[in-house]
Amino acid sequence: MKEVITILTNLNKTIAVMESCTGGAICNSITDIEGASNVFNYGAVTYSNNAKIKMGVRKEIIDKYTVYSNETANEMSKTISLFTNSHYGVGVTGKLNRIDKNNLYGEDNIVYISIYDRDNNKFYNKEVKVLEDCRSQNKQLVIDVIVNELLKIIK
Prior knowledge:
155 residues, alpha/beta, Maf protein
């Protein structure tokens, strides 16, 4: 993440995050880097569907595609980018090897990642299988994928 923060600082670009299943781990990984406040505009942990909707994710998208989808992740990344006037938005939703009694659809080990590039109005999507028994290891895997994708996009 340090390299991401350095590059964004040098480019004078900003980033914001709306995350669900990672529960703040992405925001934490960003704020662990000295100087992150120069580029990190906002982080929202939207663990429930209602929280996503309150942050601007359209309920119709969740209803049509489910909360566990690239479409919902795209809504999350674009919404947080626009809400915070950030160059990049990151949206993450999925399940970390657990059954969600409120959303009984979708695989239990897939995380959907979306990175929105506001300047080019473009989405970058990844689906990550999270197979570790330990939730923190699965969160770290998601963070690693996000860092790798961001480096490809911003370099």
